[in-house]
Amino acid sequence: MIRVQGQPDQPNLPGRRRLSEGELSILLDNHARFLAGKGGKRAHLPFVDFSGLDLTGRKLSGGDFSGSVFDGARLAGAQLDGAILAGCDLRRADLRGANLRKANLRGACLSGANLGSADLSEADFRPGSIARPHPTRGFPAVIEEGRSGEVDGANFSGATLDRSRLDGLYAAGADFSDASLAGARLTDANLKGANFEGALLASIDVGGAILEDANFGGADMSGVVLTTARTRGARLEGAAAPPSRDDVARAVKLVAQARQHDLWVGSGGREGSPVRFDGADLRSAADELKGLKLTAVSAKGANLAGLDLTGAHLQGANLEGCDLRGAILRGADLRGARMGGADLTRADLAEANLSPLEIAPGRSTATNLAGARLRYARLQSAQLDGAVMDGADLRGARLPA
After folding, report:
1. What are the boundaries of each domain within the chain?
2. What secondary structure does DSSP assign to 343-376, as a single string?
3. Which of these, 401, 334, 335, 346, lies nearest to 373 by C-alpha position?
4. 124-133, 198-207, 383-392: segment of lowest average pLDDT
5. How confident is the model at residue 128 (pLDDT cuts 50, 70, 90)?
6. Residues 6 or more apart from 9 whose CB is under 8 A from it?
7. Answer CATH for 244-401 from 3.20.20.140, 3.40.50.300, 3.40.50.720, 2.160.20.80
């Protein structure tokens, strides 16, 4: 059932259709069947008044809602990937955890909307030529007007905006803390006073952008060129600098030594030799440590942000104080690892094993995540039984069911 938040008898907005609860349910159920390949019909609902409706978790992928109004609507967890939301009014909408991958949001207004933990990868927020209902004749009579996207005051904390198109966007005061915008384009965007604390901003394009008074404390800005951006008053001193040439050269040597460590573990110590990563910046290693046997490796205080460590063997490893923001640890063996105080914000730990490590018959050592930062981390299907989590920050984390 579709529930209306607030006043159910709200009058129609000028030029927008207000569908009855029954009519809307039929149309959206038909769309769900269409998506499931069971007949139905793709939703084509431009210029509709959805304001105040509860559409939590609805399957709306690929639907056409251009020019519609969702002011104050509840869309948490909704599937809107590939949806056409050009020119939509989504002010104050609840879109927490929604899937908006590759959505067309050109010229849309999301001022004050809550998009915490939403997936907006490759979404398009660029200005567009928007068709809107004629002010007196209404829909289907339309007029065209140019409009820039607006997300001022919106909450994108923990959201994923990788490779999104944010050119020309008005985002003053928006909160992008702990978000990932890797490879995004923000040319000529107005980001005055925006909060990027702890965000992953690798290789974003900010040419001509207004970054005045923005907060970049703890943000990873590897590969970001600020020469043509306006940065007066911006807090850049706390941003993580990209790896230096010396860091890159050292990483090459450590990767070679890591392969010897893999050989050492695999041969029971007969071949190869152990490696130490303590304090090293290995961000440039990308996916070169993926799947390696790095059992008992010491990487205390190392910078492993963004590394692909899928399937790595890290039993008994010392990862205390490590920067593992955005690292991929899917299926990694982390039994008995020491990760106290580590930063695992946005890390992918799905299907990872963090259960105790047996060290002798009847004796085991627990995986220690005390005081670790696990904001917005993915822990679906991870084995967490017995893990020490005292004081861990799990805000926004996706935990096992």
Report:
1. 244-401
2. B-TT-B-TT-B-SPEEEETTEEE--B-TT-B-TT
3. 346
4. 124-133
5. confident
6. none
7. 2.160.20.80
